[in-house]
Amino acid sequence: MTSLTPELLLRAYMAGVFPMAEDRDDPNLYWIDPERRGILPLDGFHLPRRLRRTMRQSTATYSIDRAFGAVIEGCASANVRRPTTWINSEIVRLYTGLFDRGHAHSVEIWLDDALVGGLYGVSIGGAFFGESMFSRERDTSKFALVHLVVRLRAGGFELLDTQFITDHLRRFGTLEIPRDQYHRRLAHALSQPANFSALVDHGRVADVLQSMTHTS
User: Fold this and answer.
1) Are 198 and 151 in contact (CB under 8 A)?
2) Which of 38, 67, 89, 154 is 20 to 30 Å from 148 at the Cα level?
3) For 75-85, what is the mean pLDDT?
4) What does the angle CA 77 – CA 86 – CA 152 come to, to the nearest 5 degrees?
């Protein structure tokens, strides 16, 4: 896998496959093409009531693409709840290359000047492929996901690929679809124009709720 390049990685995403490592210390990458794929329908996003209330009360702010390197390192870091991760140094290198080419993006959540949560993913046409998220304060990765959905709606995206489905994601409306159905949706989304930067880049997390109302 030493010859893997960001350009080849883009072609793989367009074909419906993505790479993962077994863990952070494993130098090898493996191509993944699940039989059932997790997607979060942008028009069927569910915002839990408790999270809505927490966001309204929070003084956190958000940004995009301000600290991509710090976000991917946050996602790669182990903690008590997640003792190991699949993001190795090769993943960091490749996705940083995609970021430099404008195809990878991050959402950052801040309390004062401290990065407390975020997520990153890959953008091609009208498809966004969510890769990983992290929290250093309660609910901050969820804040980032809500902001991502608002941004994708505003930017004209048609597909939010979560790769797999978890109980955490299921609460927001994520569902599984068969591989062939996913590939059909992917092909259509890739053909559509979209703009990840369509929304104002900075503001309070609570302001996202108003934006979500406007884009529903």
Assistant:
1) yes
2) 89
3) 72
4) 85
Enter the tokens of residue 156.
């004209």
Q: Extract the tokens encoding 27.
A: 């130098």
Residue 100: phi and psi, rounded to 5, are -60, -25
Calpha distance 88→215 (Å, rounded): 36
The radius of gyration of the chain from alpha carbons, rounded to an integer in Å, stands at 16
**pLDDT tens figures, 53-68:** 999 999 999 999 999 9
Provide the pLDDT for residue 18: 95
How confident is the model over 167-211, as pLDDT tens digits? 889 999 999 999 999 999 999 999 999 999 886 555 677 777 776
The answer to whether residues 199 and 152 touch, using CB atoms and an 8 Å cutoff, is no
Residue 130 pairs in a beta bridge with 121
pLDDT exceeds 90 at position 22: no
Tell me the C-alpha distance between 30 and 20, whole Å: 5
Burial of 121 (0-12, 13-18, 19+ CB in 10 A): buried
Run of H or E residues at 122: strand 114-124
| 8-state DSSP, 101 | T
